[in-house]
Amino acid sequence: MSCPELAREAVARRIAPALSASTVRRWLGRDAIRPWQHHSWIFISDPDFRPKAARVRLACRSRKEQRHATHVPTWGTQPQ
């Protein structure tokens, strides 16, 4: 979550009546909490990740194959 997102969430959960992103940033900096350095993508939490990733991988592969099938190199050809 970004600092603006954290501020909005704190207000939505009624942790604070009002809170700015700069205040959240200052608090995190003072307490040496660095959520932007946490790599949540390392730990996959989405139970549907594998099927989603497979669809993306398949789409990328077919797109790449289409590009190579229609590519006609212009180098190394003799002028007529």
Q: What's the topology here?
A:
Blueprint: H1 3-12, H2 21-30, H3 49-70
Helix pairs in contact: 1-2
In short:
The protein is 52% helix and 0% strand. The chain has helices at residues 3-12, 21-30, 49-70.
Give structural notes.
This protein has three helices and no strands. The chain has helices spanning 3-12, 21-30, 49-70. The longest helix is centred in the last third of the chain and has 22 residues, at 49-70. The termini are far apart. The chain has one domain (3-70). With 80 residues, the protein is mostly helical.
Secondary-structure class: mainly alpha
Q: What's the order of the H and E elements?
A: HHH
Instruction: List segments where confidence is low: pLDDT < 50 over at least 5 consecutive residues.
Output: none
Instruction: Estimate the global geometry from the Cα principal axes.
Output: elongated
Radius of gyration: 24 Å
Give the fraction of residues assigned to helices: 40-55%
End-to-end Cα distance, whole Å, is 61 Å
Number of helices: 3
| Mean pLDDT over all positions | 78
**Number of structural domains:** 1
